[in-house]
Amino acid sequence: MWTLKKEKNVPIYVSIIDLILSYIKNGDLLPGERLPSERKLADLFKVNRSTVVHALDELVALGWIIRKQGSGTIVNEGKWGITTAPRTNWRNYLEQNAFAKVDPFVEQIEELIRSSKENILDLYTGELPLDLIPSFAFPPLTWKHFLEEEQQDDLGYLPLRTSLSREMEKEYRFSLPAESILITSGAQQALFLILQVLLSPGDSVAIEDPSFFYALPIFQAAGIRLYGVKMNQEGICLDELERAIRQHRIKMVMVNPSFQNPTGKTMSMKRREGLVKLCQEYQIPILEDDVFAKLNFIPSEEIPPLKKLDPENVLYIGSLSKILGSTTKIGWLSAPASVNQQIAEARKMMDFSLSIFPQVLANLALTDEDYTKKIATLTHEVEARCQAVYDVVTQLSDWEAEKPKGGYYLWAKWQHGELRQKDWAIFLQEGLLIAPSFFYSEKRDSIRINFSRVSQQNVIEFQEKLARITEKIRLDFPRL
Q1: Tens digit of pLDDT for each residue in 180-203?
Q2: Which residues form the HTH gntR-type domain (predicted)?
């Protein structure tokens, strides 16, 4: 280790950067591990100390290492601020293969799900159980019917865009014209296209802390730096956000204001107005993720989309996957016409074709005469499951939780500090699959529960499993 290969026409400091990055990516240097001193590295590499300092400064700027007074230089334990090397390109993206980096805890969860063991209760998976997904009867459709409907423009199937526009008008009483809607193959494709078209490698984005954005590999693959901004009861903290904007030259703010994933929080009206005003002042666009919009337990007027408050500055992402199942793969993006057109052009250049089949079926569901009634029935059942899970969690004094106002995630915080690796292992041993907080932040003190997957038949099983896990952690927990 620490053998430097000096290449012709490559600056030595760049070779040092590449070497240290390779050690981090290969696992030879682990998160939190300390690097040798600058003087020691200079001796090992047989170079001037200033060359080593230059290389380390670059790695600090890129977010891969941090300097702590009294502790030296260590490998960054989190993802905040991490970007790829300055000469980032698609070849490097593939070499880094951010999409292949799976957390060992995720691998264990997915292995347990695949095993289909009877004692497994899956509250980790981020979708509705099959028994809750509304069923729609479709008229007989011929192959010729789909061929006739194939005549769609770059923005997607016009009847579907018209139906989505009508739903927004009915739900929130504001106009979202069909020509401002771009249909995508799910919400994540909309996000991916925004990263490729509107942002560049090295750009900084502010997100809520915690946030499901933190768990997505597409940011790191695209060389985008993420900066987390803490939240309080009303949502993202605006003073912290303004500090991040000034300090890190934030190019975009991405939020999930209604029934936030993973915390379930709902941003207050005052905070929504303040966020819009702040971003207007700094001329920074907001990306609003509103995929849980239809699963609201409170009146729609209490949660107006940020898009309604500022139509020109907000990029709005919606989805049908959260209510019609993940295989639906129908999302949409509402943006200014010029932005939508550029994104649609970029999608064509990337050869991301948009199938007519799910679009036609989605439109048939939205225009079904019982659509509104079926969504209301779904929401009522999900709310009942939310109440049942909330009651179970709050009966245990070791956990703290706030009842969500919609969506299907409940965030439970362990009252006694950070959970250890062996504590997380207990959840797997007991067959209770949850999403740990370190998926969404650097914190390790909370769990995300998909309460929509806890039916009346298995709520007792959930209660017993959580009680056993809590007791085991408590008995072995320091200071308790």
Answers
A1: 999 999 999 999 999 999 999 899
A2: 10-78
Same domain, 202 and 329: yes
Assess contact for 226 and 195: CB atoms under 8 A: no
Dump pLDDT digits (tens) for 390-407. 999 999 999 999 999 999
Count of CA atoms in the C-beta half-sphere (13 A) of 185 = 12
Give 20's contacts (C-beta < 8 A, 6+ positions apart).
29, 35, 55, 59, 64, 65
CA dihedral 464, 467, 468, 474 (to 10 degrees): 180
Both 167 and 126 in a single domain? Answer: no
Confidence grade of residue 138 (pLDDT, cut at 50, 70, 90):
confident
Residue 98 lies in a domain: no
Q: What are phi and psi of 282, to 5 degrees?
A: -95, 0
> What CATH number has the domain bearing residue 413?
3.90.1150.10
Q: Which domain holds residue 223?
A: 143-369
Alpha helices (H) in 7-89, listed in sequence order: 12-26, 38-45, 49-61
Does the global pTM surpass 0.90?
no
